[in-house]
Write the structure tokens for this entry.
Amino acid sequence: MTKTKDVADRIGVSTATIRIWTAEDGPFSPFISDEARGGRGRVQRNFTDEDVRVLAHAKMLSDSGMTLEQVAAALASMQENAWQNLPAMPPLPGEDVAMVPADSAALVVKNIQHALQVAEGALDKEKTAHEHTRERLMDAREQIGELRGRLAALRLYQVVLAIVAVLAVVAVVVLYITLRGGVG
């Protein structure tokens, strides 16, 4: 069993990051053992080799630019396949690293390709949402244009009514003067 500090050193993150990732409600808690998960009054966490491999892979995916949500989706997919393509245990700092065997390199490539597919799917969803938002914005602009046209017509109508009212008053005055026998 491995402690939090050892895991943090092995994968190159802070112990705080490990605690956040593996908290009871953390983004990667569904993918690690109960002994490694925080919460429920646990003072000491114990990580299995598989936990370390999962967290190392999560860091690698995160470093590649994926969001925590995208990383969690990729991990969920791997978990459904019984962690078949989970990379090997990362070396400790200062450990000699052997050359990666071809089958392991192929596995890393496959994992990166999977992560890329997940990211592309998320991007497609964002593009679709953006398209819908843009369409609604264009519809709203069109409605604003129509409402401005109606407002201009109403303002013109108000002006015409005011002119008609003034002309009616002038007509009444002229009629009054005419009926009284003229001016003077």
About this structure: Residues 8 and 15 are 5 Å apart (CA to CA).
